[in-house]
Amino acid sequence: MTATLLTNARLIDPERGLEFPGSLLVEDGRIAAVMEDPAGADAASARVVDCGGLHLAPGIVDLGVKVCEPGERHKESYRSAGLAAAAGGVTTMVTRPDTDPPIDNPETLEFVTRRAKEASPVNVVPMAALTKARAGREMTEIGFLMDAGAVAFTDCDRVIADTRVFSRAMTYAGSLGALIVAHPQEPGLSRGAAATSGKFASLRGLPAVSPMAERMGLDRDIALIEMTGARYHADQITTARALPALERAKRNGLDITAGVGVHHLTLNALDVADYRTFFKLKPPLRDEDDRLAVVEAVASGLIDIVCSMHTPQDEESKRLPFEEAASGAVGLETLLPAALRLVHADAVPLAVLWRALSLNPARRLGLPGGRLSAGAPADLVLFDMNAPFVLDRATLRSKSLNTPFDGMRMQGRVRATYVAGSQIYEAP
Amino acid sequence: MTFPHRHLLGIEHLSPADITAILDLADTYAELNRQPQKHGDALRGLTQINMFFENSTRTQASFEIAGKRLGADVMNMAMQASSIKKGETLIDTAMSLNAMHPDLLVVRHPQSGAVDLLAQKVNCAVLNAGDGRHEHPTQALLDGLTIRRAKGRLHRLSIAICGDIAHSRVARSNILLLGKMENRIRLVGPPTLMPSQIDQFGVEVFDDMEKGLRDVDVVMMLRLQKERMDGGFIPSEREYYHRFGLDAEKLAHAKPDAIVMHPGPMNRGVEIDGTLADDINRSVIQDQVEMGVAVRMAAMDLLARNLRMARSA
Buried b vs exposed e over A99-122: b needs ≥16 C-beta within 10 Å? Predict the structure, then answer.
C-alpha cells in the first residue's frame, strides 16, 4: 500500500487536547507520522492530499448505534448505517443489541459480525445483551460473547429492575473484565412516561417522569459498582441532579464513565412543541437548565462520551399519537454538525469535544482508534467546521429519516472520511 | 365577526377576542334553542362526522344535536368498534374519512395530541372533543358561557377548580380560558392529583379545600377520573370525599352567591354531594349541559364560515 501525505490540515489531537496546523503521513492503514509542519516532511513516494486548511481528526467512535439487523432491516441495515456513518465522520460504530430478536447469544453475534464485515464501510464493534432477551432475569453467556467479539454488555434502554439479578450479572461480568453499559433510570417512576415532568408536559397533558428518576437509577447503580467492582458506563446522563452523584463516584475511584446523546446536548423539552414525535427520545428531552448543566459536564470532562444514540424508526412507528409513538432519533450523519453547535456557541472547546467523540469511547472499550499519533489506525475525518447548511432529511443515507434536525440550520460538514487509510467517503 | 382559525383544537391558540366571539354567538343560539322551532341553516349542506375513539354519551349527543339544529348531515362513528380494532392507524382512518369529503370532523381520542395529529392530515375543519389529558375546548367554552350568564361577566371572578386536575383535560382548557379572560384561578386538590409545576400557570394551589374555597365566586368540581389512574393517587374514595368532596359545609366558605359547576358525569358521593348537585339555587350543572349545545353550534358555525370563505376564494 502506498503512503498518503495529508498536508495543510488543522489537526485535532484529543490526547494532548491540542489543535494545530500540521500534516499527517499515513502508511499501511496506520498513522506513520504526525507533523507540526503543514507542508509535511519529504516523503518521495507518498501521494499528497492538500486538506485546504480544514480540520483533520481521528474518526468518531460512536458508542450506542442501533443497526436494525436482525429483524428490522427495513429500518436500517449494516450497509445503510455504514454509509451514513461514513458521511458523518463516524469510523467506528459500537452497535447495540436491542434488535428483534436481541443479540443475546454467540450465534446471533456471529451473524451480525459477518453482516457488518460484508456490508459496512466503517468499523463495527458489537455490544451484546447483558440478560437473555433483555428481560432482566438471567444473564447472557458473557464469556462466550466476549470470545465472539462483544466489547460491552447492555440491555440498552431497559433497566434491570431486579437488583439481585443486576448485581449477579455485574459480579460475573466484573470477574471477566467486561464493561457494562446501563441506562440509569428508576423503572417504577419512569414507567409509561413520554416526557419530562414540568410545565411543558403539564400543558401538553403527557405522562411524565421526574428528572429525579435518573439520579435514583444512577445512585442504585453506583452502589452496585461499589459492591461488585464492575466496570460501568452510564449510557446517557441528561439531568443536572445526576451530575453530583457521578462526580462523587468518580472521585471515590469507582470504575465509572458516563455518556450523553447529542440530542440532549442541543435540544430541550420545549422542542417537542405540538407533539412532534421526532423529538420523542428515551430518556425524554429535558429542561433547558438540565441541558446547560450537561453541556458544562461535557466541557469539564465529567461526562466522558458524546454519542449519537442513533435509533432508526420508520414513519409508521412515528406517525402516531405522541404517547404511542416510538422513541429515538437517527444521528450518525448529524452527530458532528450538532455537536459542533457547542463549539460554535463557545460552550465546549473543539479538542475537548473531540475527546468525548473519539478518544474516550475508544479508550473505554479498549479500541485502538480515537488517537492522532504514530501507530494508531488511520481512521480519520476531514471536515469544514464552518460550512453552513440547512438539513434536509431526504438527503440522509440512513434508511430511516427520523431526525429532529430536519429543516434546521447547521454548521460543519464532513469532507472526507478514511478508515484504515482508505478513503471511504468524499463529500459530493 | 371574524374567527381566524381553521380548527378548534384547544383554548391555547385562541385570543380573548376569539373566545368572546364564540360566546356572543352562542348566546344567540341559546335563545334559539329555547324556541319551539329550533332550526337554523348555518351548516346546511355540510357533512359532520363525530369520531369518538373514547366512550362518550353527553358530548357526542351535544355535538350531534348542535349539528342537526344547524342543518348539517351528521354521522356518528363509534371508533372503538371499527377499523382501529383491525389495526388501522389513526392517520389511515383519518385519510379514509377525508376522502369522503366531510366538512366538520368532531374528534375525541384517549391520547393527548392525537386530535392535533389528525388535523394535520385532513382538509376539513376539526373540532377537538377531548384528547387525553390535553384539552377539551368546547367544555371550557360552555363553562365560560355558563359563568358569564350566571355572573354577568367572565372577568375578575375568583374561580376554584377542584379535584383531579392531573388527569383532567377540562381543567387544562379551563385554566387557559379563565386565565386569558383575566380571572383569579385557584386549584384545589390533593398534591398527587396536581400536574407538576402547575403553579407556573398563573394559578394558586391549595390542598385544603376550605381555604381554597374561601370567598370564591365559582366552584368548579371535576370528576375523579378513575379510568385514567393506574393506582394509588388517593387512599380511598371515602377519605377523598371527606377532604375534597363538595358539600354544603365546605361550600359555606365560598361567597354566598357562589355557583357550583361540574362537567359531568358526576360521581355522587365521591367528589360532590348529590343533594348539592341538584340544588337549583346553587348548581348550574344543567345550564352547563344546555350551554354545551349552544357553544358547539357557535363553534361549528364559525368554522363553517371560514370553510366556505376558503372554498369560494
Answer: beebbbbbebbeebbebbeebbbb
Mode of pairing for the β-strands spanning B104-109 and B73-78: unpaired
C-alpha cell at B252: 359555606
| Under 8 Å between Cβ of B187 and B195 | no
Instruction: Report yes or no: B89 at the A interface, CB cutoff 8 Å.
Output: yes
Is pLDDT of B88 > 90?
no
Closest Cα to residue B228, out of B307, B186, B294, B168?
B168
CB A302 within 8 Å of CB A360:
no
Q: What is the mean pLDDT of residues A120-148?
A: 98
Categorize the per-residue pLDDT at B91 as very low, low, confident or very high, splitting at 50, 70 and 90.
confident
pLDDT value, residue A1: 57
Cα first-last separation, chain A: 26
Interchain contact B108–A (C-beta under 8 A): no
Classify domain A3-56+378-397+408-426 at the CATH class level.
mainly beta
> With a cut of 0.95, is the ipTM above it?
no
Question: Are the Cβ atoms of A203 and B172 closer than 8 angstroms?
Answer: yes
Reduced to 3 states (helix: H, G, I; strand: E, B; else coil), residue A210 is coil
Spatial CA neighbour of B141 closest among B2, B27, B266? B27
Using the beta-carbon criterion (under 8 Å), do A319 and B91 form an inter-chain contact? yes
The CA–CA distances, whole Å, from B148 to B1, B136, B213, B290, B291 equal 19, 19, 20, 14, 11
Residue that the C-alpha cell 381555604 belongs to? B211
More confident residue, A399 or B81: A399
pLDDT digits (tens, 9 = 90+) for A58-97: 999 999 999 999 999 999 999 999 999 999 999 999 999 9
A123: cell is 468499523
Q: How far is A270 from chain B (nearest CA, A)?
A: 15
Flag whether residue A323 sits within 8 Å of chain B, measured between CB atoms: yes
Q: Which of B34, B39, B44, B58 is catalytic?
A: B58
| Average pLDDT for chain B | 93
CATH 3.20.20.140 applies to domain A59-365: yes
Q: Cβ of A324 and B132 within 8 Å?
A: no
Within A36-162, where are the H helices? 78-88, 106-119, 142-147
Tell me the nearest-neighbour CA distance from A208 into chain B, angstroms: 9
Give me the pLDDT at residue B230, please. Answer: 64
Residue A237 in contact with residue A258, Cβ under 8 Å?
A: yes
A320:B90 CB<8 A: yes
Q: What is the domain partition of chain A in residue ranges? A: 3-56+378-397+408-426, 59-365
Using the predicted structure, report yes or no on whether residue B84 has a pLDDT greater than 70. Answer: no
